[in-house]
UniProtKB/TrEMBL annotation:
<dbReference type="Pfam" id="PF01614">
    <property type="entry name" value="IclR_C"/>
</dbReference>
<protein>
    <submittedName>
        <fullName>IclR family transcriptional regulator</fullName>
    </submittedName>
</protein>
<dbReference type="GO" id="GO:0003700">
    <property type="term" value="F:DNA-binding transcription factor activity"/>
</dbReference>
<dbReference type="InterPro" id="IPR029016">
    <property type="entry name" value="GAF-like_dom_sf"/>
</dbReference>
<keyword id="KW-0805">Transcription regulation</keyword>
<dbReference type="InterPro" id="IPR036388">
    <property type="entry name" value="WH-like_DNA-bd_sf"/>
</dbReference>
<dbReference type="InterPro" id="IPR005471">
    <property type="entry name" value="Tscrpt_reg_IclR_N"/>
</dbReference>
<feature type="domain" description="HTH iclR-type">
    <location>
        <begin position="19"/>
        <end position="81"/>
    </location>
</feature>
<feature type="domain" description="IclR-ED">
    <location>
        <begin position="82"/>
        <end position="266"/>
    </location>
</feature>
<dbReference type="GO" id="GO:0003677">
    <property type="term" value="F:DNA binding"/>
</dbReference>
<dbReference type="InterPro" id="IPR014757">
    <property type="entry name" value="Tscrpt_reg_IclR_C"/>
</dbReference>
<keyword id="KW-0804">Transcription</keyword>
<dbReference type="Pfam" id="PF09339">
    <property type="entry name" value="HTH_IclR"/>
</dbReference>
<dbReference type="InterPro" id="IPR036390">
    <property type="entry name" value="WH_DNA-bd_sf"/>
</dbReference>
<dbReference type="InterPro" id="IPR050707">
    <property type="entry name" value="HTH_MetabolicPath_Reg"/>
</dbReference>
<dbReference type="GO" id="GO:0045892">
    <property type="term" value="P:negative regulation of DNA-templated transcription"/>
</dbReference>
<keyword id="KW-0238">DNA-binding</keyword>
Amino acid sequence: MDHADTLPRFPGKPGVPQVRAVERAVALLRAFAPDRPRLTLTELAQATALDKGTARRLLHTLIATGVVGFDARAQHYMLDPAILEIASAVQVGSDLRDIASPILGEVSEATATSAFLWIPHEHAALCVDRVRAPRLHIDTTWFAVGARAALNCGAGPRIVLAFIDDDTRERSLAGDMPRRTAFSETSPAKLRKAAKTIRQRGWELAKDDFYVGLAALGVPILDRSGVFAGSLSITGLTADIVANAPTRHLKVLKDAAERIGARLQTHHTEVDRRQGRKP
């Protein structure tokens, strides 16, 4: 099961009927993931709990609209480039991503790790940007841009857990917390306690809790007024991250988060000025 399958889903507005065919089509699109970009009809039917006939008809329509492709030789379905045109219109996290993107690259280069940018979204952590590690053999493909992660695993998501408001945290902890490895924490009580500790010290080190052999270090991004905007994290081999976390890596991350936060505040002030709002 992919991590996205365990994340919470939210019903539509009460009293407004939902179109079942649309729900099913969206479920088919969401069945694709960075670690499963090409799927057979059988795999798609199983992932969405649809019979093959229904899945095939929906996929045929999605192919006609250009968002799904089909490899007749391999009998595989995949997302087509038209989906990128839709994704490019997504505004969630765009301000933070635009400001942080060049700094994220600097962090990745300075630490020789994969760097990630996260924001809170629907009681999970949404990855809005990523720069791959120079050493591609340790690239974490499951945390691709647009992927959501539950808040119990990984330094970036656990920073989100620590810095969201109390009500949102409780609703997040009420959902499923996936156990990825033997080191994954799934107890709401322990996660609640961990969130308090993370918030007090201002950083998090997560070891082997998503994939044994990899660790992550994360810090919050706060604007100049102290408002939480998201989290910045790096991932690499556990031994490398642990050895460098309390010294060089943590300093790089904190400096980067401070620069992003300062630029974010300046950006918001400029937007307010242009729109005639008082800062």
